[in-house]
Amino acid sequence: MSNINKIAKSSFLLIIESASKKLVGLVSTLILARLLTPEDFGIVAIATLAFGLLEVVTMTGTQKYILTTETVNKNVLNTAFTFNVLIKTIVALLFAFATPWIADYYQDQRLTPVLLVFSFILLIQGLHNPQVTVLKRNQEYTKIVKMIVLCKVFSTIIALAVALLTKSYWALIAGQFFAYTLPIIGGYIIAPYKPKVTFIKIKEQFSFSGWLIPSSILGYLRTQIDTILVAKFFDTATLGSYHVMKYLAFIPSLHIVGPITQPLLAQLSSVKNNASYFSQMFNVSLLVTLAIAIPISHLIYSYADIIIITILGEQWGSYSQLFSLLGLMVFFIAIFHHANNCFLIFNNTKMSFYFELAALVFIGGGLFILSFEQPYEFAYIKVMLEILLSMSIFTYAAIKFTNLKHFIVVNLLTIALIAFSTCSIYLSEKISGEPEGFIELILTITLYVLFYFSLIGAFVYLLRNSCSELNYLMKLFNGKFQSFTMKKI
User: Contact, 4 vs 266, CB < 8 A?
Assistant: First the structure.
């Protein structure tokens, strides 16, 4: 199977996984938002924020090392397992010891038992099976997808059951606990492996992740600094509302755009020594990603009110403006991650660290020195800063790892995609009218999708001989179509 076919199949499977998880997650959110209060979500937001920091502090980079290294053997896998267990165990115990002080800082003693649960989750995560990463390296995602979806369904059922019984934030905690721990168990079922304690490959792995670990910590702080500052500027209910809006707005990035780009890391690594082919594939993969990210971002921004009221209910409608603004980040997160992948592919994790440091100072400093009366004002400034940051890093990476010509081409094609999206919104509303309810929204989106991909198809066909990227996409589509036709015959 060719590289691009592996990427396409792997991306498709990961999208199916994420779509299934999010379908289950949205159903649970729909119910939980009606059973619980914004304050309940605020408590969980604080705990999740602290746990997220722990995850990146203990992110050893071993999975990415396994994905990108030339040779994988038992010594590599066992070292990865040992390193993970050691780091996560130490940090989990320290975190458990510090939970009373964290609860005192937020002046809410309810956080103490909640944070202890999360410290136990981190302890279990240290037992991650490295053989699962080998499946990802080999683009064998079928077993992984099935396992993850089953774990998500089971954890959601538990969360809903606890919510119905207690109507408290412990429903969210129960769901989180099983969502994090069940995949660890499932990993050993789908990829049987008996890890052993060894440090034979620790030098090689640490040389790769030495800059990646602090870079990941800074990256987490950069993405969560807004939530930290919302907790400082506003009350717990506002924090809970902001957390929910951000969570919903980032679903497409985490569970649609992310799965599309995840297989690219291993595949682009294999062609990095061919500068011309790498440049072409860099643009092709980015265009495929943005062809999905742009309409998602545009639709969230345009129809946030209807989406929020439908999903969460009328009581959350006043926060839809937050959702609308944060939805713009789907597009720019895709650009940022595509650029950051280049640093990993070429083992330039030191540069990734410098960018994350500059980004944290730029965004965190900008938000900290300003004063805000409304969360909408806060979100607006945050998004503007993120846009400037993402475009700057992408510009640097695209020119450094490809060339100026390819950079100009991909920008012109991106502008074309944005224009197609704008035209599709206009045409769909012209036919169906501006949607005022969920049914009308579904009709408008259906028309939008038809117009949008029709315009892309016509554009690729007409300019296929003028642009190597479009020519490649046209050949790929023709090959897939012919293969599909032959199977039918």
Answer: no
Q: What is the pLDDT of residues 398-432, one digit of tens each?
A: 888 888 888 898 899 999 999 999 999 999 998 98
Say which residues have a Cβ less than 8 Å from residue 246's Cβ, sequence separation at least 6: 226, 227, 322, 326
Cβ count within 10 A of residue 203:
10
CA distances to 42, 214, 218, 391 from 397, in Å = 37, 20, 19, 10
d(CA 322, CA 267): 36
Comparing CA positions, the residue from 69, 70, 185, 169 lying closest to residue 113 is 169
Q: What is the DSSP letter of 108?
A: -
Is residue 156 within 8 Å of 128, Cβ to Cβ? no
- Amino acid residing at 405: K
- Which is more confident, 56 or 375? 375
Per-residue pLDDT tens for 165-205? 877 778 778 888 888 888 899 889 888 888 888 878 777 76
Handedness of CA 164, 169, 172, 175 (dihedral sign): negative
DSSP for 288-351? HHHHHHHHHHHHHHHSHHHHHHHHH-GGGGGGHHHHHHHHTHHHHHHHHHHHHHHHHHTT-HHH
pTM of the model: 0.65
